Amino acid sequence: MAGYPANFLFRQDGGRRIEMEFSGDIKSYPEVILEKGREKRLLHGHRWVFSNEITVSLKGFKPGSWVRVVSAKGAYLGLGYVNPNSLIAIRIFCPPGKKPTLGYFRDLLTRANSLRRRIFKDSKVYRLFFGESDGLPGFIVDRYDDVLVYQANTHGISAIEPILVKMLAELFNPRCIVYRNDSSARQLEGLDTDKGIAFGSLTEQGLWVNVDGLWFWVDPIEGQKTGLYLDQRENRKLLKELVKDKRVLDLFCYDGGWSIHAALYGARYVVGVDQSAPALERAKVNATKNGVADRCSFIRADVFDFLKNDQDRFDVIICDPPAFAKNKKALSSAIKGYTDLNRRVMLKLTEGGILITCSCSHHMSETLFHQVLMDASLASGRRFAILEIRGQSPDHPILLGMPETRYLKCFVLHMT
Asked: In what residue span(s) does the PUA domain sit (predicted)?
């Protein structure tokens, strides 16, 4: 089958490709040798090989094909898949001592789910699989009760996508599996974008899910990302101790996740701001479902325009914008954007107020974001103390040897 690893065999079954077995061994794959001394990151658990770290050009390789990665001294470092047109030339998915059998892939999915069930116990809403951190770079799966939503963001994952979909169906027995192959990551990989239903069916366009006692409407096909932002799940619980009888502003509120938590935790009133009309409609529906519509109002506006024109002050502000730096080239302008945004937000706080401000750009390190906030504080003429520095929810685990898997920074600041 064109585009699929040669060692996976398929048969035809009603026009659908179903895998039969895995055959062959690691040594059957082409070898790519690293430049001298370039193996250190991989030995620490990193899963990316950059184009300037290998001794030969990959131009003759088909995107998504598999290669053995070895050090300059000949030590085997893992099996990976190639994209000759990307700075990230190889992504390691099978470390030394492991073989890419069907059983290996099933084990990755099963272990990932077992970890989430340990963390969230009875909940069936979580990120089930988180790319590199769980062993398959570029593969993301979110679980919304009996609906699974996945993204196949690399050529290597796209090549084995039918296999993974079938495994998800067998392991978790969902009523529906949705594919959201419409991410910017696929565009960077040179892949087509699309979305739809890969397995089963949805009787409605979306579904209600319960996340830690709160209800949210999920639209797996038309919602942003996979339908919900699950990475702030634990951070939102911070509001319980911070918002009682306070005036709260939720910027880039999307479907009202922070807003509804604040209202349920006793905020006097909450204003949510976003420029997406569909997201705000879901926010209003979510607020009504959770019984807090009387204390939540949602405004459709560009956040920068709102901050320039609105005259109110707030006791607690949450600023959770989309990624300003999609790549390293955008980092310089992103720094300016984050600095200006946070300066304006700081000016909206009442004396002694609390600011929860975030960056989900993985190119923006915690150290750099810290500097951005110091610069914004200086420009605003206001001083702050850090109460906490937090990150993404534990169903988005961070590889010890791969800092890129830590993308979310969440600073909790108190105006002194």
From this structure: 30-103
Helix axes 331-347, 366-380, angle to 10 degrees: 40
d(C-alpha 271, C-alpha 168), whole Å: 39
Query: Considering all CA atoms of the chain, what is the largest pairwise distance in Å, rounded to the nearest integer?
Result: 68
> Tokens 């906490």 appear where?
388
**C-alpha span between 126 and 230 (Å, rounded):** 7
Burial class of 13 by CB neighbour count within 10 A (0 to 12, 13 to 18, 19+): exposed
CB 66 within 8 A of CB 3: no
Please write down the long-range contacts of 179-185, taking CB distance under 8 Å and 24 or more positions apart. Answer: 179/149, 179/150, 179/151, 179/152, 180/149, 180/150, 180/151, 180/220, 180/221, 180/225, 180/226, 181/151, 181/152, 181/153, 183/151, 183/153, 183/225, 184/326, 185/138, 185/151, 185/153, 185/154
- Cα–Cα distance, 88 to 188 (Å, whole number): 10
Q: Rounded to whole angstroms, what are the CA distances from 398 to 133, 388, 405?
A: 6, 18, 5
Q: Give all domains of the chain, ordered by start, each with its CATH number.
A: 26-94 (2.30.130.10), 102-208 (3.30.750.80), 229-415 (3.40.50.150)
| Helix (H) / strand (E) containing 178 | strand 176-181
Task: Tell me the per-residue pLDDT of 193-229, one tens digit each, with 9 for 90 and over.
Answer: 999 999 999 988 899 999 999 999 999 999 888 999 9
Q: Are strands 147-152 and 176-181 parallel, antiparallel or unpaired?
A: parallel
* Cα 76 from Cα 41, distance rounded (Å): 14
Rounded distance between C-alpha atoms, residue 286 and residue 292, angstroms? 9
Residues marked as catalytic:
360
